[in-house]
Design a protein that fits this description.
Elements (H helix, E strand, L loop, with lengths): L1 H23 L6 H25 L2 E5 L5 E5 L1
Antiparallel strand pairs: 1-2
Helix pairs in contact: 1-2
Keywords: Membrane, Transmembrane, Transmembrane helix
Length: about 70
């Protein structure tokens, strides 16, 4: 249940940021605000991806060539 609320929070933050972005995107005087919004959207997306990666258990596996890569357990 808590995980669902966290996902809803991230979704609402991204939605609000996109709405603001489209409201201000037609005006040249808000270019700085638009770039800040894009940076914040990217930060929220990367943070949510980081949380997902931290929650998933990872294990090592090797393929035939001997290189090691991470896979979901």
């Amino acid at each position: 249940m808590l995980e669902f609320l966290v996902y809803c929070l991230f979704a609402s933050l991204i939605l609000v940021a996109f709405v603001e972005l489209f409201i201000f995107c037609k005006r040249d005087e808000f270019n700085e605000r638009r770039s800040k919004l894009l940076k914040s959207i990217k930060a929220v997306i990367f943070k949510s991806k980081g949380i997902e990666l931290l929650q998933k258990p990872l294990s090592r596996s090797s393929n035939e060539t001997g290189s090691i890569h991470l896979v979901e357990a």
